[in-house]
Amino acid sequence: MSRALIIVDVQNDFCEGGSLAVAGGAGVAAGISRLLAAEPDRWEHVVATKDYHVDPGAHFGDPPDYVDSWPRHCVAGTEGSQFHPDLATDRIEAVFRKGERAAAYSGFEGTTEPAEGAQGLADWLRERAVDRVEVVGIATDHCVRATALDAARSGFATTVLLDLTAGVDPGSTDAALGMLREAGVTLRGTPRT
Fold first, then answer.
1. 9 labelled catalytic
2. Which of 145, 159, 124, 100 is nearest to 47 (CA)?
3. Number of helical (H) and strand (E) elements in the chain, helices listed first
4. Is 50 marked active-site?
5. Which is the catalytic residue, given 50, 51, 74, 143?
6. Please, which residues have CB within 8 angstroms of residue 11's CB and are 6 or more apart in sequence?
7. Which of 15, 50, 51, 98 is flagged as catalytic?
8. Cα(95)–Cα(46) distance, integer angstroms
9. Which of 47, 76, 140, 186 is the residue whose CA sits 20 to 30 A from 114?
10. 15 classed as catalytic
């Protein structure tokens, strides 16, 4: 059995200067890169997720309500949808894009490129005998929470490395941490908020 790192949505639009910036996002990108360099043998596999919107319907709001609708972000093919430049991507084996035509928070809703067989995250991990995952990324209270909950529901022993996450709002981040604990997810560290 093996362990995988899941890097959630460390994209330009979710970091400082982006259209839906989360404070501390760039620090999360750099911190993940430092950890990958410092502990190269910690994970047998490293994957990442991306918000990658084409026409996600009511997920984009004008004006947004910041609950169910958000400013335009991570539009397919834009600079905002790209990984933050401080994130080291050389270890990433597969990228799971989500939210093309609807809101999608969990990386387990995403798939690899159709040219690669459009495989979902759970199947990809199981094919490689992964039984444990560690989750990092943006945002603690939205896509990190959803990805970690789905990982646990899918039967993976799940840990969130909170020092390598950034939350949108302290209140919703605290609520997310409660949901994760209740689902049996191991939490280590403190999220940036």
1. yes
2. 124
3. 4, 6
4. no
5. 143
6. 18, 50, 51, 74, 80, 81, 82, 83, 84, 138
7. 98
8. 9
9. 140
10. no
